[in-house]
Amino acid sequence: MHSTKYSDTFIEIADDSTAVQGVPPPEKEDNPSVASRTWRMIFEQPYAHTSDDVIFSVWADRQGIPASNRAAAREEFFSNGRACLRAPDLGKKYGWGIHYNEDGRVAAYGRETDAYRAFAEAGELKVLKAMRSSRG
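Structure (tokenized):
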């Protein structure tokens, strides 16, 4: 089974991001975007979920998978490799860094915050960049 989980890691915003601070992705009531669902789950419950929890839940909600089928669906979902939280627009477009604690649970920090800077400069954390939006 594959996993997207890191521990003791911080994902900084992408090098080509123009975001100067963390802003919530726009909400669409009828069909929230992947970025909006991901941000809400991480921001509203910091360190409550692993990246696997977030990525699967967002996908399953968008697919309309009922709770009774989620365990089997999750096993099938992670039978293939999946993009981690370096890929979504949170770190490309909306200015959010993602911190994974020692248990692999995640929280989001806006680029403008002291916490973001502390995580980005912390020598004991692995620091990665969110994936760039463009190849150039």
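Helices lie at 34-44, 51-63, 70-77, 114-121. The CA atoms of residues 60 and 70 lie 7 Å apart.
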